[in-house]
């Protein structure tokens, strides 16, 4: 049997091996929920989401492989609801003897490439030029016999063709190592050019009919947050009690260790933080909506000359909630294993003709659409981590400025600095972004 079938069988066996432990924990969680009202553990929720995603991917690939081998009697995707059903498909493929029309399988990859579209530019020139060559290759394969197939066919069948690597950039394996990812980027860059490869690695390319994550799953919820979330944090200006100023990470550590003074009270927990001599918006925790507190102008000038670009950075930190930061400040935590779940940006004070937009790569959803200044991107309180981000400037003044940003990533640390729409993070690696630092400079 071929490599594709063997890989799918290995993936299915891997999922089967995880089921006993997962089902045992789920059963115990169901008992605790029923008897004591204990909510589902966050790590268990993430494991269930990961299992569902892997199951859906395995199901999709098994159906595609069955079509490639023209296996009869495969039921509709909606009727495939268990690993047992997927195992039946793999058994049917094995019984077919693995006989496949080589040209049909090669054309499958070509047709997948031809179905690509650009998320923002319907007539993206580098993609259109590559499609012209793909159509030429498709024509050659269709008009060739097995005895005189072009060299591209064996390469496609073995997965060594640049087209296969390029498709893997768009639908990456969640277990791919950084070194392999870099090798694929280099391989595709030499074959397709940097602009097209960059668009693929940044999630700009979609297969026709692919639906991006719906807005409700990646934007701020409209309903009020559930009760008993992380303590509300309030700044009391003019406090007579002196509190030694602390950095953000120490403050977060203190917040997480804070215990309610009266477990039986129905009142929300309130933690009093010190005010400062700066503008109040620099010390207070932003309210749970994307409207930023006003920030006073720092400098003035003509047509933006001499103006230091101010930036409000609002992030939602796991178990802490909403916290507001500013340009050049580290927004988040380091070494606390706390994910960022959402963020929103706003240039403050506004600069006429200059805007900012941004996207995030969300666990289980992929890249969000670009959102504009002041809008949330992410899913606050959902338990879904941000795994990457991209930021760029907009408006007629955008060419006169540059935005720079970096992130602190789980097990990776601080990234290098990225700018002007470059993707910062790790797609498909399951690594959370724990913080970010952003600033805008005038050129």
Automatic annotation (TrEMBL):
<dbReference type="InterPro" id="IPR006637">
    <property type="entry name" value="ChW"/>
</dbReference>
<dbReference type="Pfam" id="PF07538">
    <property type="entry name" value="ChW"/>
</dbReference>
<feature type="compositionally biased region" description="Polar residues">
    <location>
        <begin position="276"/>
        <end position="296"/>
    </location>
</feature>
<protein>
    <submittedName>
        <fullName>Uncharacterized protein</fullName>
    </submittedName>
</protein>
<feature type="region of interest" description="Disordered">
    <location>
        <begin position="255"/>
        <end position="296"/>
    </location>
</feature>
<feature type="compositionally biased region" description="Polar residues">
    <location>
        <begin position="256"/>
        <end position="265"/>
    </location>
</feature>
């Amino acid at each position: 049997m071929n490599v594709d079938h063997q890989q799918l069988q290995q993936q299915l066996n891997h999922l089967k091996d995880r089921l006993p432990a997962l089902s045992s924990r789920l059963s115990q969680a169901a008992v605790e929920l029923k008897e004591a009202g204990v909510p589902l553990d966050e790590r268990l929720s993430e494991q269930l989401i990961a299992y569902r995603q892997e199951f859906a991917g395995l199901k999709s690939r098994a159906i595609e492989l069955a079509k490639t081998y023209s296996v009869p009697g495969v039921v509709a995707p909606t009727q495939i609801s268990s690993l047992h059903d997927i195992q039946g498909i793999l058994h049917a493929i094995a019984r077919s003897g693995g006989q496949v029309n080589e040209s049909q399988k090669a054309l499958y990859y070509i047709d997948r490439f031809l179905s690509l579209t650009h998320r923002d530019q319907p007539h993206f020139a580098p993609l259109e030029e590559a499609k012209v060559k793909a159509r030429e290759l498709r024509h050659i394969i269709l008009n060739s016999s097995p005895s005189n197939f072009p060299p591209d066919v064996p390469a496609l069948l073995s997965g060594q063709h640049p087209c296969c690597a390029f498709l893997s950039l768009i639908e990456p394996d969640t277990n791919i190592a950084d070194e392999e990812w870099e090798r694929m980027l280099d391989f595709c860059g030499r074959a397709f050019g940097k602009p097209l490869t960059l668009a693929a690695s940044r999630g700009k390319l979609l297969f026709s009919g692919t639906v991006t994550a719906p807005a409700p799953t990646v934007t701020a919820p409209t309903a009020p947050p559930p009760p008993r979330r992380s303590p509300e944090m309030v700044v009391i200006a003019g406090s007579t009690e002196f509190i030694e100023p602390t950095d953000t990470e120490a403050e977060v550590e203190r917040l997480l260790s804070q215990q309610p003074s009266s477990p039986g009270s129905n009142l929300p927990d309130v933690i009093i933080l010190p005010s400062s001599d700066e503008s109040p918006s620099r010390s207070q925790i932003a309210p749970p909506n994307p409207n930023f507190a006003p920030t006073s102008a720092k400098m003035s000038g003509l047509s933006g000359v001499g103006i230091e670009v101010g930036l409000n950075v609002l992030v939602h930190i796991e178990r802490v909630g909403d916290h507001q930061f500013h340009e050049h400040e580290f927004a988040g935590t380091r070494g606390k294993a706390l994910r960022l779940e959402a963020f929103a940006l706003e240039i403050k004070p506004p600069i006429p003709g200059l805007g900012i937009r941004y996207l995030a790569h969300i666990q289980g959803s992929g890249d969000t659409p670009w959102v504009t200044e002041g809008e949330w991107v992410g899913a606050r309180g959902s338990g879904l981590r941000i795994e990457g981000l991209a930021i760029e400037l907009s408006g007629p003044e955008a060419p006169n400025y540059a935005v720079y940003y970096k992130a602190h990533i789980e097990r990776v640390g601080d990234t290098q600095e990225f700018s002007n729409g470059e993707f910062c993070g790790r797609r498909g690696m399951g690594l959370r972004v724990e913080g970010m630092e952003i600033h805008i400079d005038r050129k």
